């Protein structure tokens, strides 16, 4: 089976071609801020990113013949984890999604590419809106604002399965706290294969991150909204996109921040340490989901390459459970194996409604 994988992110478009389980081509196409800034909305980048993928396939002499195209899923309605066939309802909800994130393009590009190939299926798997929250985790202090699940579902589940395999266990038998340290940061409590609690890593919950504000003081936020100083769009960007490390330090690049710290930049150190402190507190809170007894804490995402960040986090949370570090992500492999499982019948194909 030949599978094309499409994974649009905020600063890159990742693509890969798999023959069954084997990646025969993988590429991360980086986008300058200036490349993307000409598009008012993320969905306006559809043609630009689709054509980059097609050009890359041509450049590699890879024939445009696939059994399936699978994309990173978008921010549609809350759904269970698994592989979904892309249908009209999913495309409609992705185009009209109220939340903006590059992942919305994954579904749209996969559907468009597959529609031009005879007998080719279009899928997404484990999108950011996977919702397996326990009822108790949904209740916030205001009935107007229930808690919701938006997180790095694809990578968290892929890393959980990798850890389970390495430890000759089943994901469904384990209790894990998994922390994805990326542009956004999510901390998920995985109870026997279900993410029963997790912060909304996209717009305003949990630790702050390279580009997200995380939980903010609510009263001050309301005052800011009505101050007349900011538009709705400005404030949204100050929660997601131009927040966190970007707002404090003007960069989301942790390696660059480490260089500043090494040169004696005290502000850079304070802000990075504050991010680490907030991540550790969220992990501590997640430990209470399991009454303090669980199998492991797993760190993943790009920032997990940073020894400084991981060492500081370990100091704060290693008393809770054994720690394992999986830098980067397994998203491309996870998407490919979901598509393969769907094509071979090993995995059920879910219909989005
Ligand atoms: N080698 C590295 N050392 C430190 N930080 C890194 C390294 N590689 C990537 N990062 C950081 O990881 C973050 C991006 O993580 P990534 O998992 O790629 O993002 P996303 O989850 O948004 O797809 C950025 O803040 C980047 O600076
Ligand atoms: C869509 C929610 C997951 C998320 O925050 O992803 P990034 O860190 O890749 O922006």
UniProtKB/TrEMBL annotation:
BP GO terms, sorted: acetate metabolic process
Keyword Heme recorded: no
Domain of life (superkingdom): Bacteria
Keywords: ATP-binding, Cytoplasm, Kinase, Nucleotide-binding, Transferase
Cited PROSITE patterns: ACETATE_KINASE_1 (PS01075), ACETATE_KINASE_2 (PS01076)
This protein's GO CC annotations: cytoplasm
Family annotation (Pfam families): Acetate_kinase
Reactions it catalyzes: butanoate + ATP = butanoyl phosphate + ADP
EC number per UniProt: 2.7.2.7
One MF annotation (Gene Ontology) recorded for this entry: butyrate kinase activity
Cellular compartments annotated: Cytoplasm
Keyword Plastid belongs to the record: no
Family: Belongs to the acetokinase family.
Record-given protein name: Probable butyrate kinase
Taxonomic lineage from the root: Bacteria, Pseudomonadati, Bacteroidota, Bacteroidia, Bacteroidales
This protein's encoding gene: buk
């Amino acid at each position: 089976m030949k599978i094309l994988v499409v994974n649009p992110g905020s600063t890159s478009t990742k693509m890969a071609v798999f023959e069954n389980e084997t990646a025969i081509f993988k590429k991360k196409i980086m986008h300058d801020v200036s490349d993307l800034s000409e598009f008012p909305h993320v969905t306006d980048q559809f043609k630009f990113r689709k054509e980059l993928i097609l050009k890359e396939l041509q450049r590699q002499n890879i024939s445009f013949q696939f059994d399936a195209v699978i994309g990173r899923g978008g921010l549609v309605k809350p759904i269970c984890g698994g592989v979904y066939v892309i249908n009209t309802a999913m495309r409609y909800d992705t185009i009209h999604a109220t939340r903006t994130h590059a992942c919305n393009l994954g579904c749209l590009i996969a559907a468009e590419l597959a529609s031009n190939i005879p007998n080719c299926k279009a899928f997404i798997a484990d999108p950011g809106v996977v919702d397996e929250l326990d009822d108790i985790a949904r209740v916030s202090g205001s009935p107007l604002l229930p808690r919701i699940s938006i997180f790095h579902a694809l990578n968290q589940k892929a890393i959980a399965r990798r850890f389970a395999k390495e430890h000759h266990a089943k994901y469904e038998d384990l209790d894990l706290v998994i922390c994805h340290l990326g542009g956004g940061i999510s901390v998920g409590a995985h109870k026997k294969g279900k993410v029963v609690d997790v912060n909304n890593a996209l717009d305003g919950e949990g630790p702050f991150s390279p580009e997200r504000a995380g939980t903010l003081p609510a009263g001050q936020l309301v005052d800011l909204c009505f101050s007349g100083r900011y538009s709705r769009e400005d404030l949204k960007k100050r929660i997601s996109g131009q927040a966190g490390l970007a707002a404090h330090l003007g960069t989301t690049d942790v390696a660059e921040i480490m260089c500043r710290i090494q040169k004696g930049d005290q502000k850079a150190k304070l802000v990075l340490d504050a991010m680490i402190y907030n991540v550790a507190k969220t992990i501590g809170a997640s430990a209470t989901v399991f009454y303090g007894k669980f199998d492991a804490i797993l760190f993943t995402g790009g920032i997990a390459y940073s020894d400084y960040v991981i060492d500081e986090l370990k100091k704060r949370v290693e008393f809770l459970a054994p720690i394992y570090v999986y830098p980067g992500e397994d998203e491309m492999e996870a998407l490919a194996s979901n598509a393969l499982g769907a094509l071979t019948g090993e995995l059920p194909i879910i219909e989005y409604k």
